[in-house]
Design brief:
Oligomer: single chain
CATH class of the largest domain: Alpha Beta
Mean pLDDT: 91
Distance between the termini: 82 Å
Radius of gyration: 27 Å
Strand content: 5-15%
Strand order of the largest sheet: 1-10-7-4-2-3
Low-confidence stretches: 1-10
CATH topology of the largest domain: Rossmann fold
Largest sheet: 6 strands, parallel
CATH architecture of the largest domain: 3-Layer(aba) Sandwich
Shape: elongated
């Protein structure tokens, strides 16, 4: 990680992530929010289960896609270079951004070079990662979210609470109030179809005057130099065909080697994300508008963003984080996410995937509480379509957060930030006692004798738990007494 990358870690999300515990207390006290999430997560889990009605087929598909992603990650540096070459040959210009600031600067320059002032944007979590909308707004460039969920979130001046369904934290009554507060000619209704129609009317008018379209990328295919976008509303297709300039932005891990890798990945992505057998729109973009074509942009640019991904790539175990295809199913099955919602995390990516990737983007110092916000029940790992061992990676990140920063080998930004001298001393003392027979017997003996004066308040542990109390006698003592009693009974029986 360079100094420039470390500097960008101090983003608005870093400060919000540091306030995780306060955010959790706030959202747990919101019964409407908890009800919204509970109903939505139950619905999504049921949809996924129906989409994968054959367990054998699901397991086969998961194994296949896991191997595809691992094969591509092993070749990532080479595939990225080949992707740039093939895209350039196709007429698509490629830009490299190590940090969020650099990505925003590149995109702003491309827009300003075209004298663009009106931007329509398709769904892109990477642009949320860079806080692109805020950056463009400061330069006087209007950037409208055209995905319905993102549009609702933008109106509310929030960031997405779910990577697939950004406005899942709001119900229809809340959305209706939001539309009423932001529009003078809105006929109040809580009918979902009417609300969606209203949003689309506003967005469609913006498409007509847009100078620039911005989109994300689900997969970038090296073999053909193709950008693949998956969507349901058609707004992604509008963003990438109506404006004269199309700018796509994605993380460097979205590269796949062959076009033949896409069908299994798409099948797994759509069924895991929304329970659909296939998404409504699959957009394949390989070049700008060609001679004789009636629509499409005259310029297409791709911005490839690192933002801490190379740090994850450098370690064989943590590299598995980059296998993620951003389906969101780990969130839907996570008992923690279901109860606190996405905004409590304070990061772009909430839930299990956020706990894994955010430490690389924001540093361990800002995200040290996220890795411990897990029961390690394993539900996320069991449903992950590409078999990322999420609980194991969370344990590894916990170790990194308390590891001495002076140790040689792999280094993460913020490593050791959760390390406390008192804890180090206590655990070393604990290890010494439990590895020495004499000290163990002496310590347990003393604890048993002093059991009645043990403190009843042990910080956060006893806020919802009963304080542990040492037993009057340890297991060895109890077993010795039992054996002694049995021996006495046997001797007594033999004498009689």
């Amino acid at each position: 990680m360079t100094k420039q990358t470390i500097k960008v870690l101090e983003s608005k999300y870093a400060e919000s992530a540091r306030n995780f515990k306060q955010n959790v207390s706030r959202d747990l006290a919101n019964p409407q929010l908890r009800s919204n999430f509970r109903g939505a997560m139950d619905y999504l889990m049921d949809k996924r289960q129906q989409a994968f009605d054959d367990p054998k087929e699901l397991e086969s598909l998961r194994n296949r896609c896991k191997l595809i992603k691992q094969r591509c990650l092993l070749q990532l540096p080479t595939l990225l270079e080949e992707l740039e070459q093939r895209l350039t040959e196709n007429g698509i210009k490629v830009h490299w951004a190590e940090t969020c600031d650099e990505a925003n600067r590149i995109i702003a320059e491309l827009i300003n070079n075209k004298n663009g002032r009106h931007v329509v944007k398709g769904k892109s979590m990477v642009s949320e990662e860079t806080a692109l909308n805020d950056h463009l707004e400061k330069q006087g460039i209007e950037c409208l979210e055209s995905d319905m969920g993102e549009y609702i979130v933008q109106l509310a001046k929030e960031h997405p609470s779910h990577i697939i369904m950004p406005a899942i934290h709001q119900n229809k009554q809340q959305v209706a109030k939001l539309f009423a507060d932001n529009s003078d000619d809105f006929d109040y209704t809580t009918d979902v179809d009417q609300l969606i129609r209203r949003g689309r009317q506003v967005i469609r008018n913006k498409f007509r005057n847009a100078d620039v379209g911005i989109s994300g990328v689900n997969f970038a295919v090296t073999e053909t130099g193709t950008l693949c976008l998956v969507e349901n509303e058609g707004n992604g297709r509008m963003c990438t065909t109506i404006p004269d300039l199309h700018i796509a932005i994605t993380g460097i891990e979205k590269v796949v080697e062959n076009l033949s890798d896409l069908p299994p990945l798409l099948s797994l992505l759509t069924r895991s994300a929304t329970g659909q057998l296939i998404s409504t729109y699959i957009n394949m973009i390989s070049h700008p508008k060609q001679e004789g074509e009636k629509d499409g942009p005259s310029e297409v640019h791709l911005v490839l963003l690192d933002n801490g991904r190379s740090q994850a790539f450098a370690d064989e175990e943590l590299r598995q984080t980059l296998q993620c295809i951003r389906c969101g199913t780990c969130m839907n099955h996570c008992p923690v996410y279901t109860r606190i919602g996405g905004h409590a995390y304070g990061t772009v990516y909430p839930g299990p995937i956020g706990k894994m990737i955010s430490p690389h983007m924001l540093g361990l110092e800002a995200t040290k509480n996220l890795t411990t916000a897990s029961s390690l029940c394993g539900a996320c790992g069991e449903v992950c379509p590409v078999k990322i061992p999420i609980p194991e990676i969370l344990l590894r990140l916990r170790k990194e957060s308390v590891k001495s920063s002076s140790k040689n080998g792999y280094q993460m930004v913020g490593q050791g930030s959760n390390r406390k001298l008192v804890e180090v001393v206590v655990w070393k003392l604990w290890a010494k006692i439990y590895s020495t027979s004499f000290l163990y017997k002496m310590a347990t003996g003393v604890a048993g004798r002093l059991r009645n004066i043990f403190p009843q308040k042990l910080g956060s542990w006893t806020r919802i738990r009963t304080a542990p109390r040492p037993a009057a006698k340890n297991l060895h003592q109890l077993m010795n007494e039992r054996n002694t009693d049995k021996a006495r009974q046997l001797n007594k029986g033999a004498k009689s």
